Known about the structure:
Blueprint: E1 5-10, H1 13-24, E2 40-43, E3 48-53, H2 58-63, E4 69-73, H3 74-80, E5 85-89, E6 95-101, E7 112-115, H4 118-127, E8 133-136, H5 143-147, E9 152-157, H6 161-165, E10 169-177, E11 179-183, H7 185-190, H8 192-203
Parallel strand pairs: 1-3, 1-4, 7-8, 7-9
Antiparallel strand pairs: 2-3, 4-11, 5-11, 6-9, 6-10
The structure holds 1-O-pyrophosphono-5-O-phosphono-alpha-D-ribofuranose.
Residues 13, 139-142, 155-162 line the site of 1-O-pyrophosphono-5-O-phosphono-alpha-D-ribofuranose.
Subunit structure: Heteromultimer composed of HisG and HisZ subunits.
EC number: 2.4.2.17
Keywords: Amino-acid biosynthesis, ATP-binding, Cytoplasm, Glycosyltransferase, Histidine biosynthesis, Nucleotide-binding, Transferase
Amino acid sequence: xxxxxxxxxxxxxxxxxxxxxxxxxxxxxxxxxxxxxxxxxxxxxxxxxxxxxxxxxxxxxxxxxxxxxxxxxxxxxxxxxxxxxxxxxxxxxxxxxxxxxxxxxxxxxxxxxxxxxxxxxxxxxxxxxxxxxxxxxxxxxxxxxxxxxxxxxxxxxxxxxxxxxxxxxxxxxxxxxxxxxxxxxxxxxxxxxxxxxxxxxxxxxxxxxxxx
Length: 212
Ligand code: PRP
């Protein structure tokens, strides 16, 4: 008997691309459920259930086993450092994590960096031998240097539009990012055949890297 697979899907910008990939893999996830208020979508005909989660919470659901597998950006995966298996690089939602500043930035004695990723940013500046104060924000990070909260920010760059529209400059790339398929360690053993078949179907439709 096959067992139901619970999938934690990130709401928001990754959802569209991830649901597209599932559909190409023959798993009929609707493109628009993200816009409704429904949080659990059952697909009993194919033995799957989709949980629509805040992206940053996906690794938590998977670690605790309330979702067997999940889709999550490498940025969140590294920042949250949850105990999950990384099964597959899905090659979608490609972007980079960078250090960003106003064009006239020069290193001062006391430096502040604003970011949604305090762990990754602290680790990066420690490795660079730079002493900085890291300030955690939850969004619109680009505001920080514009209004004087921080000298630099660590944030994601996809098209570069946000930087251009706010007169900011990318100074260093910390990390290239794509979405990953992750699994709960126990689920991976107990529901191995089911998880492996989702993994195989997705791996056949992963987009080819086009180089940024
Ligand atoms: C992300 C990121 C940047 C922007 C980059 O923010 O934090 O602000 O997208 O994309 P771009 O290079 O294509 O302009 P998001 O829209 O997720 O919202 P947030 O600012 O609330 O984090």
